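Retro notes, item 3 of 5
We never archived the inputs for the zinc ion complex last cycle. Fixing that now. Sequence and ligand:
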Amino acid sequence: MNLLQTMQAGWLNWLLPSYCAGCNQKRAHPNHPLCYQCLSELPATDYEAQTGHALEQLFWGRIPLQSVTATWYLKPASSLQHCMHQLKYNHRPGIGVYLGSVAGKRMKQQNPSHHFDALIPLPLHPSKKRKRGYNQAERICQGFAQATGIPVWDQIVQRNQSTETQTRKDRAQRWNNMEGKFSLHNTKPAINKHLLLVDDVLTTGATLEACGQTLLQIPGVQLSLFTLAYTENR
Ligand SMILES: [Zn+2]
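Structure as it came back at the time:
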């Protein structure tokens, strides 16, 4: 940013002050959407340096994974929940980039031995992406990549258009429908690589699992999962 741009950003911030995405009270810097207090009070899971924790256990017997990490716990009515809401429904993609970079730095500091060849954003349903204007998982990957230098591959797995409504199907049909939701494209660079599949929030993990099973069809792929937040009270 040159001097003129810095001055313009300063004036704009003075004219149209942006407020913290967590508490909506304190002023926040345009490039740092959370105030210092909200950022410092985010409840960290510290899963980066642990194995066999509750989040990994959630996937035992479901899908073979190298590691599962979520940076923070998502608690009801918390500043993080406000952030996630702003990110998904209030057109503030910068929150995803920012929190992705904070999470990437934490991952690097807490477990430097983690090695991922590429970040894969969980694809959003095409009609949802059109409506929202962006895929929040891609924005999280963008920030995570800035902090870690790991490349983002957003073309390898895509989400298919669903043709039938889920509610008319029985359980088995619904699962088959879920499995068919993702398709692979141009997978050659991913052969024998360790991929980190990324999303915003992990609740049951069903969609990440379905996408992960699709990615595991690529020969020699190792898979890990990462989300910004984890909803503990299922
Ligand atoms: Zn705040």
